[in-house]
C-alpha cells in the first residue's frame, strides 16, 4: 500500500472521528494512530527504541 493511500485512509478516519465524535474523539483517534504508527515502524525495523532514548554518557 502506498504512502498516499495510507495517508488518505488516516485522513478519512480522522475526519469521521471529528464529524461524528467531536474534538476529543478526533484527538483520541489521532493519538492512537500515532501510537500504531510507531509500533508498526518498530516491528517493521524502520525505527529502533534507542532512537527515543539518549544515553547520559553521550557527549
Short description:
The chain has 59 residues and is mainly alpha-helical. The chain contains 2 helices and no strands.
Question: Care to describe what's here?
Answer:
- The protein is an all-alpha fold and about 60 residues long.
- It is built from two helices and no strands.
- It has helices spanning about 5-20, 25-45.
- Helix 1 (about 5-20) runs antiparallel to helix 2 (about 25-45).
- It is flat and about 50 Å long.
- The N and C termini lie far apart (about 40 Å).
- The model has no long low-confidence stretch (mean pLDDT about 80).
How would the blueprint of this fold be written?
Elements: H1 3-21, H2 23-44
Helix pairs in contact: 1-2
> How helix-rich are the residues, as a percent range?
55-70%
Class from helix and strand fractions: mainly alpha
Q: Care to count the β-strands?
A: 0
How much of the sequence lies in strands comes to under 5%
Spans with pLDDT under 50 lasting ≥5 residues?
none
Number of distinct helices? 2
Question: What is the end-to-end distance?
Answer: 41 Å
The secondary-structure element order is HH
Q: What are its keywords?
A:
59 residues; mainly alpha; 0% strand
